[in-house]
Write a structure and sequence with these properties.
Oligomer: single chain
Largest sheet: none
Number of domains: 1
Radius of gyration: 33 Å
Structural class: mainly alpha
Distance between the termini: 89 Å
Helix content: over 70%
Shape: rod-shaped
């Protein structure tokens, strides 16, 4: 009789411990899955934003080329000149 009662006294906390471990594992797994989904969504948004930036830059270059081709007077945009100076200054600093 004592052996049966002792075995049940050990099995109840052990069963509770196993149940707690499984519940914690399942809860953490759901959290990780949710976080992976959020990271993937943010990566897609970031890739879309980068693609839009690249399209805008391509349009800008196309407009600059069109301006150079159709303009009889050589025109140097102020922004392009300042960007070239900034590139030269950074290149001089690294040399």
């Amino acid at each position: 009789m004592l052996a049966i009662q002792l075995a049940s006294d050990i099995l109840i906390p052990l069963g509770c411990l196993l149940f707690g471990l499984m519940a914690g594992y399942l809860f953490r797994g759901a959290q990780i899955k949710s976080l992976h989904y959020k990271v993937n969504e943010l990566e897609r948004d970031l890739m879309q934003a980068h693609a839009e930036i690249l399209d805008t830059q391509k349009d800008k270059v196309a407009l600059q080329q069109k301006l150079k081709e159709f303009s009889p007077i050589p025109v140097i945009p102020i922004k392009a000149a300042s960007e070239e100076k900034a590139v030269q200054k950074s290149a001089d600093k690294h040399s």
